Fold this sequence. Notes:
By secondary structure, the protein is an alpha/beta fold. The protein folds into 4 domains: about 5-10 and about 450-560, CATH 2.40.50.460; about 55-240, inorganic pyrophosphatase (n-terminal core) (Alpha-Beta Complex); about 255-335, no CATH class; about 335-440, Diaminopimelate Epimerase, Chain A, domain 1, CATH 3.10.310.30. The chain has helices at about 15-20, 25-35, 40-45, 60-75, 85-100, 125-130, 145-155, 195-210, 220-230, 235-250, 255-265, 275-290, 295-300, 305-335, 360-370, 395-400, 420-440, 465-470, and strands at about 5-10, 80-85, 105-110, 135-140, 160-165, 175-180, 345-350, 375, 380-390, 405-410, 415-420, 450, 455, 485-495, 500-510, 510-520, 530-545, 545-560. It has a 5-stranded parallel sheet with strand order 3-2-4-5-6, sandwiched between helices. Strands 7-8-9-11-10 form a 5-stranded mixed sheet, sandwiched between helices. α18 (about 465-470) links the parallel β13 and β14 (about 485-495).
Amino acid sequence: MPHLLWNLKPAAPLDFLNGVNGFSPLVKQLLYNRSLNDLSSIETFIGPGESYSHDPYLMGDMEKAVSRIYRALLSGEKIAVYGDFDADGITGTVLLIQALKKLGASAFPYIPHRLNEGHGINKAALNELKESGASLIITTDCGVTGTAEARLAGRKGMDLIITDHHDPLGELPDCEAVINPKRSDSAYPFKELAGVGVSYKLVQALYQSVGRAEEAREFLDLVAIGTVADMMPLIDENRYLVKEGLKVINSDPRLGIRMMMDFAGVSSGKVTAEDISWALAPRLNAAGRLEHALGGYNLLVTEEWKEAYRLAAKLEEQNTERQKMTLKACSHAREQIPGDEPGNLIIAHADEYPAGIIGLVAGRLSGEYYRPAVVIKTGQKVCQGSCRSIAEFDIINAINNLSLYLNRYGGHPQAAGFSIKSSNLSPFLKELSQMVDLHLEGTELKPTLDIDAEIKLDALGGNTYQDMSVLAPFGRGNPLPVLMTRSVEVVNCRQMGNNGKHLRLKLKHGGALWEAVAFGQGDSLNDIKTRMDIVYNLEQDEWMNEVRLRLKLLDMKPSAGSG
């Protein structure tokens, strides 16, 4: 059973509860917990409108980028769109290619091979693009740290426009334009766009300049998928983009998305941000993790039913294989971690780790042990590493301070990747471990479970689920509502799933009887007492065309005095 610190958020003050009308007391508490303290901010949050779509020309170099692209359109130049190999990069590549072609461009995609080329622009790719006749390269979700590569592109006579959302280094690449809201000189009011979101702002600017602004909205399905897949906070402009993108997906999904939904068992017209996160994004990512991300790209652009089915079926196979490989690697990694004293930094490495899944393994280890984790695929000459971190430690800042050891690196405060010479690995890990120890000294490394409200189970009926849904889409920055109920009677509890990995429970409280599931908590069966305090999400379970509510248990512990 997870060992979490429960943090019940303070009750909303009476003046707030009495001053906000049109919502149930529970929803008012949820709004208050999200720092929505007045009617104006609440109205904007519930129905984010165009005001949340900020002016793309507030981003540095936007005018230069638009001008250069239209020069390419007028002269018939070949444009290469260079995208990353994850779902964010794939959707950004599709968006730019389709948007440019709709304006009459001669454009083609280039997505590097994760295993052979790694993240970002590389010399071999530039040589290939030059041979293909490209005179303009536009990146998506990569490039902002590629100063040497930008110089090389220039020497080869190719102009470069970078659209990226990763943290820039001290020096921006010397190229035609660098579009990134995180530039130190950026006037753009929202910094947390996904890579596909930044590319969308370029498309917005392009389409606005020719009086076709509304047409850019047809690509919002791609923005929604890439934003959620890259775990960007669903606040401000991201919330607006994802909400509008979900409308596109639910009203008229492109063929490739519809085919992924069919394989994943996602109901048409009911797709949520959680469905993207747990069903669509992993499948789209699977291609790049195991083979080449062009499989995901091709699925999103195809208009042929048979081709869409073939590509979606291939992604399904790859995703299943990815799951098996991740489980095996996680098991091996745990064997390298001291059971009693894991230390402040989790490190696991092996020659046999597939490079495409080391980030997933690092994420699981970081979550299980609540510590920064580094997982490395070792090699004779070069090693590839992936890092995941916790709120208390900025991993990309630490890696940046150790960049002299690295061949390439990039990422965010809680997720990063790097390539390193094998001879540099040991001193790099030693210094990184020392940095982690120093920074986390005296810190209690225990995850906190923030709880929105304490409630009785018999108060959850009626329209509670629909009432809470006005806060959707849910995700990072706007999490699913977390509720707590004390002293719940456990009527029945049994294991379910492969090897009894999960629990299914029947719970009673205040005359109300509820079905509940506890995923990944099957080994806690013997810890279940007659009465338990539970923390959970309220969710809809659809089975055999029947939709009903159930509790998704996040944590539980014996109630005081239970036996």
